[in-house]
Amino acid sequence: MPATRLTLPSPAKLNLMLHILGRREDGYHELQTLFQFLDYGDEITYAVRDDGVIHLHTAFEGVPHDSNLIVKAATKLQEQSGCSLGVDIWIEKILPMGGGIGGGSSNAATTLLGLNHLWQLGWDEDQLATLGLTLGADVPVFVRGHAAFAEGVGEKLTPVDPEEPWYLVLVPQVSVSTAEIFSDPLLTRNSSPIKVRPVPKGNSRNDCLPVVTRRYPDVRNALNLLGNFTEAKLTGTGSCVFGGFPSKAEADKVSALLTETLTGFVAKGSNISMLHRKLQSLL
Ligand SMILES: C[C@](O)(CO)[C@H](O)COP(=O)(O)OP(=O)(O)OC[C@H]1O[C@@H](n2ccc(N)nc2=O)[C@H](O)[C@@H]1O
Ligand SMILES: Nc1ncnc2c1ncn2[C@@H]1O[C@H](COP(=O)(O)OP(=O)(O)OP(=O)(O)O)[C@@H](O)[C@H]1O
């Protein structure tokens, strides 16, 4: 009997560097970025229904049911595969929204992989990543599940294996709109493409940082605080700020000092996403 119920992790990502090379005619930006996953994320439960209905039972503040990326992913997969089954979905949401750690994109990717399994569609990763890209630029890397150097709008992926330190991630209590940052006239859009692989040291900057810190003093403050202990970086368009440490104990020590004033969490960097590790264990 095939499984009819499944609980899967939906991990966060970090952008270890992010360069903006230019703007395309459709307004999207050409990037070069390095994605790594965190062993930290949401947990989503799926239960197959035979009446074709897709129902997300967990309400999100400010996100209508049909606009939720989980529902959009399930609906598109159902339409494109011609599947007659439906699904009940519940999520334990811990990832901040608008934090630059890819929560929505990860939820969409987990849903594509989870339903491909439960609905027994037999789609391959290429098909799921192509569908995923129509939901968001960050969805394909979560579908692939391997740390990657990304180009294009984030969809041309080359797997990489950077170090896997422990990270302290600070979560300023502001939600940053990705579209707002990418439309700022002051954004750097002319970084030179890096042609050498692996990406040489000294390229770890995030081109969004000056615009984000100008608009969001809370993010600037978090970068300054964390910068007293380690190289502090911005992920995506923020708001989250992160720094690496050689051990959990060292990350915890700094966390104890900083999280009195700021919310944050400690998590291990991972080159294979915990979603893929879990799916592998099911086979
Ligand atoms: C900044 C990053 O998080 C880096 O990983 C991503 O590039 C953003 O990926 P995402 O959240 O999946 O982005 P999407 O939902 O596709 O796009 C949100 C908005 O950001 C802008 N956007 C996004 C990605 C990109 N390469 N260029 C853009 O200009 C567009 O205005 C778009 O309307
Ligand atoms: N399942 C979902 N989880 C989170 N946000 C969602 C979801 N579905 C729709 N959204 C919408 O998408 C917006 C961006 O959410 P998300 O958490 O992916 O931001 P982010 O971490 O900044 O993403 P990125 O790094 O990909 O730019 C939210 O503010 C919310 O309105």
Automatic annotation (TrEMBL):
The answer on whether this UniProt entry bears the keyword Nucleotide-binding reads yes
Task: Name any one Pfam family assigned in the record.
Answer: GHMP_kinases_C
Q: Which residues form the GHMP kinase N-terminal domain?
A: 68-145
Binding residue positions for ATP: 96-106
> Superkingdom of this entry's organism?
Bacteria
Q: Provide the E.C. number(s) assigned to this enzyme.
A: 2.7.1.148
Q: What is this protein called in UniProt?
A: 4-diphosphocytidyl-2-C-methyl-D-erythritol kinase
**Taxonomic lineage of this organism?**
Bacteria, Pseudomonadati, Pseudomonadota, Gammaproteobacteria, Pseudomonadales
Q: Which gene encodes it?
A: ispE
